[in-house]
Amino acid sequence: METAFGFCDLCINAEIVNKNTLHKVLDKLYEMGYSTVAINRTIEETVFESEKKNKKKAGDNEALGVTVPSPPDIADLISEYAGKLRILNRLTFVFGDPTRTHTLNQSSSLRKYDLYAVVPKTQAAFQFACSQLNTDIVLLNRNCVGLKLSRKLYLQAVERGINFEIQYCDVISSASRKFAIHYSHLFHMFGKSKNIFISSGASIETQIRSPYDIINLASILGMNETKAKASILSQSRYVILRAEGRRYGKAVFRIQTCSTEKREMESEMEIEAEETDDEHGDTCTEAKKIKL
């Protein structure tokens, strides 16, 4: 498995239909030194209601199963930027009712996306995302007004391997800056910014910043230089690898070498202890007990 993902930007909100804008964004990312990017598609939970109404109007008597839109066809982009950028597909689901996620998870189209992120709009949705939902990313943005993040909930999500996203476009924008910095400081206070990664959330090329500008910007988000660099390198890589596990399932393996060496060492210690006991009698038995 290839592990060199380089600097990552895991949320580009460029419209796939606008090829010129998307090419400018990708060119800017490559010039800035990025190696892995994710093109994001956002859907609201209201799309399910719209599809159900359309089926009823059309007289469709089939089960009201909702289909998630397939990811955009980026085969041409992958071919064009081969050797320059690794391009991924990402789906972001904005929801307030936790039951909507069950409908989404039943869709076969979800597995076609490389990354799966959610934006909870209610406290119930937020708690469900952190404690039960099988997602890769939880994003808190301006849609998440009034959500309460506690230490217990945050650490519970971290224990499950869920990653929290900070988009620096929210930090740069005056309209959302206070909100983004507030939650960033809570992440630092509750868990020293564990499982935090930074993306752009950009839609146009002028919103892109270099990786080293992001590292400097992260200082106001409660991150030191090491954490900031990890948020666009190793932590982003972890997000991608976890997403692979969600899509294809988990594997369990054993490493027998370490356990074999341990058993050999224990056998040698037992032999030495027996020899010492035979030579020195009860005195060395006491010494062996103290040593153990």
UniProtKB/TrEMBL annotation:
Subcellular location: Nucleus
Keywords: tRNA processing
InterPro entries with a match to the protein in the record: Pol/histidinol_Pase-like, RNase_P_p30
Keyword tRNA processing (UniProt): yes
Keyword tRNA processing belongs to the record: yes
GO BP, sorted A to Z: tRNA processing
UniProt feature, compositional bias: Basic and acidic residues: 281-292
Any one GO molecular-function label of the UniProt entry: RNA binding
Pfam families on file: RNase_P_p30
Compositional bias of kind Acidic residues: 270-280
Region (Disordered): 270-292
GO CC, alphabetical: nucleolar ribonuclease P complex
Family from the record: Belongs to the eukaryotic/archaeal RNase P protein component 3 family.
Name of the protein in its database record: Ribonuclease P protein subunit p30 isoform X1
Organism: Neodiprion lecontei (Redheaded pine sawfly)
Origin organism lineage: Eukaryota, Metazoa, Ecdysozoa, Arthropoda, Hexapoda
Gene name per UniProt: LOC107224252
